[in-house]
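Subject line: Sequence and fold of a protein, written as structure tokens
Area: Proteins and the way their chains fold up in space.
Start of record: The labelled sequence and token lines come straight after this line.
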Amino acid sequence: MKRLRMWLRELSLSQQLITIVFLFLTVFAVFVFVFLSERIESFSEKEMYRILHSSQEDMIVFVENGQVTEGSGNKSTLVADYIYDPAGDTFIILSGDEISGVLADDIRRNAASQTETTVDYKLDALKENPGKGEYLYTMTLMKDGRVLVSVMTDLYRNEFHESLIDSVVMMNVLFISVLFVLLMLWVSSLIIPLSQIKTYITKLKNDEHDAVLNVRRNDEIGEVADALRDMETQLASDNRVKQEMIQNISHDLKTPIATIKSYSEAVKDGIYPYDTLEKSVDVIIEHADRLEKKVKSLIVLNKMDYLLDTCELGDNLNMNEVVEKVLLSLRVIRPEITFVKNMNEQVYFHGDEEPWRIAVENLIDNALRYAKTNITITLHRGEMVISNDGSQISEDVIEKLFHPYEKGNDGQFGLGLSIVYRVATTYGYHVNAENMTDGVAFRVWKDVPKKERNRKEKAGKDTV
């Protein structure tokens, strides 16, 4: 069976259809000539005996009343009727040909032992009567002791049997032919759009600009076509954003490099572009820091492409410690900003420390860029919220804020929040941004049962 499935997978849809129809015809032929043939033969035999009984019912009353004489019986060419008198061992031919010796002997033998009124018999007379085959006959005992015998050869039964089989076969052949045509039309309706999809994908792969997919269907193929069109639109948008990002990165990298180079050459020549040596070196260090930060963001984003959840099941990372480590290094950037911590004592997340630390750093760094006076960090079981009292985000930006290379107002690279998104989703968390009355909140959470959410402890606030 496994080899058959593998072989079928190597065939085209048309070849698969032809193969399936051929197998169906083979099974059908075996069914007709092995199983159905026997059933039809049995049905044919019963039908022949029914005809014999019907013939006798029409004649037996007239025979017993003496109204039927030799040669005046049933005119049907299918049935031969005889009256056998056991007392005189004589046969009266009511209809049909003269009775054969083999049949007459069989009638005599059965008449002597017959006890029931009407009995059906079968005689294989093929050897004595070539071409005759079997005799089917019915004998009915009459009141005067004589026996009414109705005989039929199997020639008619064979014709009837063959006619039934031919009718069944022709009906099924017609049905299969119509089914085959319908299946071919159906397969064609699959092949054509699939070919269009293949051509469309090939053009996309080769970056051809005339790639158009005109498949309008409401089935699964239509869903695939819609998904491909959406994918092409998204890829085109991503490529456009990436190209813009590359240009921006090139420009952003070029500026600090040029500054570092020019200031370094000036200092080497004894010229201080920024009044004093110390101030000029500070400018060089500042641009080096900017350059380092940009390169680090690109490296981290590339690293996150290969991030996998290889941690043990369950929550194993103390997020309180992660947040404290991040605050220790970042709150000196803007000392005037007040950090409000609304955190439970022990909150554990699922995942590794380094990716989560990078994600928290990016969220707090983003908040520091926009905050006016304070940043609030809320940490409960399965949830972390970092909010600031800065300006709100426009609705058209907030929907795609976590996409790679998407920048908000005054954003730098459009990479920080995409890194947060990748870390969160890798470890089974959700992340979104929400506008509040007095600022913006970034929320990272994991779905937890309702009972556990109700047991969350009320967090106490402490101000740093």
